[in-house]
Structure to design on (340 residues):
């Protein structure tokens, strides 16, 4: 009887420790394979062409580590542990990190639309709205005055056409000069007076202490809708551009295959490096992908492509790993595929 009692007590104690540990965050992030998500249901070009196969974006599951997830990642294959500073910028809060990821995704969608419509020879109209505040530096004039997510659209009652113009105007001031920023927060418009301040090693370099990104809309015909409310970051850019272009043109780039992949996309069509390539290869394989597109980075030894090839061999997948350097090169490779 006593033995059973002690065993039950021990089990209850261990369960309590595990339960409590899930609420104690460590200064680390843990990443693991996520999912491969078909893009056709979340991207819709008005009157777009259908495809026989599918393009899929790939994700990793990333979260703050607790004691349990940290120990599990230590012994599980293809789970990675990162210190906070490797994921978040210096002094960046959780809120600022989330805002940055959402705006990186927004910029990624804009670039993907630009690349796809340019490739299809369809005109694009631009509407510049200002800059978004990504983060606020401690000890600088904007601290306590501006917040991540604020949209600044005027300086001293003057509108500007790019973040470069914003930076140049502020940088032309001298330490102590006052500027007035007009911004939207939520559904309200506000103004704030700030005195620019020197920062960094160069005392002539001045600013108000914000990280920013362009807020611009592009207008295209036919219209395209990209629903990404539950996805953050820029790594789906390549796959977005392929899906959009495929719906714009008669030739089906999928050739009937299940094609997954990853990589950022710039407005000039360059494919960029991403994080978590190993986990994304596994996610694609688990989803039954037959082809995986990975950033080639001009053949660098440590490129995403080479890491993807190694992972594919390790897990003994039949999935073909294809290098992706530019959007145009990827399109050319896909067109050459034998239709399934």
């Amino acid at each position: 009887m006593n033995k059973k009692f002690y065993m039950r007590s021990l089990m209850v104690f261990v369960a309590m420790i595990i339960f409590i540990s899930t609420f104690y965050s460590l200064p680390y992030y843990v990443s693991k394979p996520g999912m491969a998500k078909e893009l056709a249901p979340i991207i819709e070009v008005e009157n777009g062409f259908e495809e026989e196969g599918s393009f899929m974006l790939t994700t990793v599951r990333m979260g703050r580590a607790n004691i349990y997830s940290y120990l599990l990642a230590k012994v599980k294959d293809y789970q990675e542990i990162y210190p906070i500073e490797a994921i978040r910028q210096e002094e960046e809060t959780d809120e600022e990190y989330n805002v940055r990821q959402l705006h990186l995704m927004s910029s990624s969608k804009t670039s993907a639309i630009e690349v796809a419509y340019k490739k299809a020879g369809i005109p694009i109209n631009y509407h510049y709205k200002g800059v978004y505040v990504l983060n606020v530096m401690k000890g600088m004039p904007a601290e306590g005055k501006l917040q991540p997510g604020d949209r600044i659209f005027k300086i001293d009652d003057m509108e500007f056409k790019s973040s470069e113009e914003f930076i140049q105007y502020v940088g032309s001031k001298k330490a102590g000069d006052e500027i007035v920023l007009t911004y939207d927060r939520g559904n309200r418009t506000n103004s704030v007076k700030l005195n620019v301040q020197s920062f960094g090693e160069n005392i002539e370099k001045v600013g108000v202490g914000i990280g920013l990104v362009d807020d611009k809309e592009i207008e295209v015909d036919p219209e395209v809708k990209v629903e990404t409310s539950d996805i953050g970051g820029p790594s789906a850019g390549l796959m977005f551009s392929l899906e959009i272009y495929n719906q714009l043109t008669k030739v089906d780039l999928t050739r009937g295959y299940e094609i997954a992949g990853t990589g950022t996309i710039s407005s000039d069509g360059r494919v960029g490096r991403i994080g978590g390539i190993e986990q994304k290869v596994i996610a694609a394989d688990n989803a039954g992908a037959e082809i995986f597109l990975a950033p080639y980075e001009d053949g660098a030894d440590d490129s995403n492509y080479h890491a993807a090839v190694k992972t594919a061999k390790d897990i003994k997948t039949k999935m073909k790993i294809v290098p992706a350097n530019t959007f145009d090169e990827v399109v050319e490779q896909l067109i050459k595929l034998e239709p399934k």
Remarks:
- The CA atoms of residues 24 and 66 lie 6 Å apart.
